[in-house]
Amino acid sequence: MQVEYNTGNIEKYKSKNPLKKAMVERLNKRIIDNLVEMTEGEPVRILDAGCGEGFIDSLIINRIPNVEIVGFEFTEEAIAIAKKINPTVNYLQGDVCKMPFEDDSFDCVICTEVLEHLSDPEKALKEMLRVSRGDLLITVPHEPWFCLGNLLVLKNVRRLGNLIDHVNHWTVASFRKFLKNAKDECWKIGTSFPWIIVRYSVHSQ
Question: Could you give the angle at the alpha carbon of 27 between the alpha carbons of 23 and 30, nearest 5°?
Fold first, then answer.
């Protein structure tokens, strides 16, 4: 897997554009609300697969008590920032397509805006399912609305809103097909413009 560090995630979370800020805050609320519901207030061990600079981890720590977070990230630059933001989180460097964890190591695995960057997203998804005890939460850009959202905030205008490092592009229908190819189970799929939010839990089947 070849992933070069870029500051796009920082720009997203630090944006002063009111429209972009509102969209990101709405997505983050959906993510954390889902995690709260999935964990039900119990002590949990969460893997943040592709954690970036740890912005989501900060939100989890502030909302979920008795949580242990392991952040797993490919780029060392992002890990260095994440460690400063969240000194209590255990951050490890590596490839989400080949993670050094035993089967069923985590109560819950989250993966936010990672799969669209990978040349083999199905392999990464199978790895996340392997290390999870049954709960998984994923977000990816919802196309073509993600590109439209970028155009609304005047980002990547010359590329019609498309980010150069996004190698996968999904609609709700195509992402549902992708998920079922990895594991033929029911997936709860929702949206938060301009993202797709997916939740899988063996406990709710």
Answer: 145
Q: How many residues does the chain have?
A: 205
pLDDT in 10s for each residue of the chain, 205 residues: 456 777 778 877 877 888 888 989 999 999 999 999 888 867 799 999 999 999 999 999 999 988 999 999 999 999 999 999 999 999 999 999 999 999 999 999 999 999 999 999 999 999 999 999 989 999 999 998 888 877 877 777 777 767 778 889 999 999 999 998 877 777 899 999 999 999 998 755 4
**Cβ neighbours of 165 (radius 10 Å):** 11
131 touches 99 (CB < 8 A) = yes
For 96-132, letters b (16+ CB in 10 Å) and e give bbebebeeebbbbbbbbbbbbbbeebebbbebbbebb
Asked if 118 and 97 count as a contact pair (C-beta separation under 8 A), the reply is yes
d(Cα 135, Cα 4) in Å, to the nearest integer? 29
Tokens for 163, please give them.
């980010």
The DSSP letter of residue 166 is -
